[in-house]
Amino acid sequence: MPDVDPDGLGRGYGVWSIAGARLESFSPQPCTIHVVYSWKVAQKLVLEAFEDQSSLGETSEVNLGNGGYYQKRYFDGLATHIELL
Q: pTM, whole model, 2 decimals?
């Protein structure tokens, strides 16, 4: 997404995007059921995919303030921020 607010002023982030990762599957029997296994495992896999890449900037953990149960799995509200250069 372009870094522009409603007033047309940039916030200094350049071009950015956001994604949510989770380890999941679909169970076809007896009916199609969406099953989430983990939020943290997927976050770790995404971070590991960028490690040792020249395009990786800083990484940090950000508290989103939305911890709780989602799709019967607990999410602690901590997201991984990954800066790409």
A: 0.59
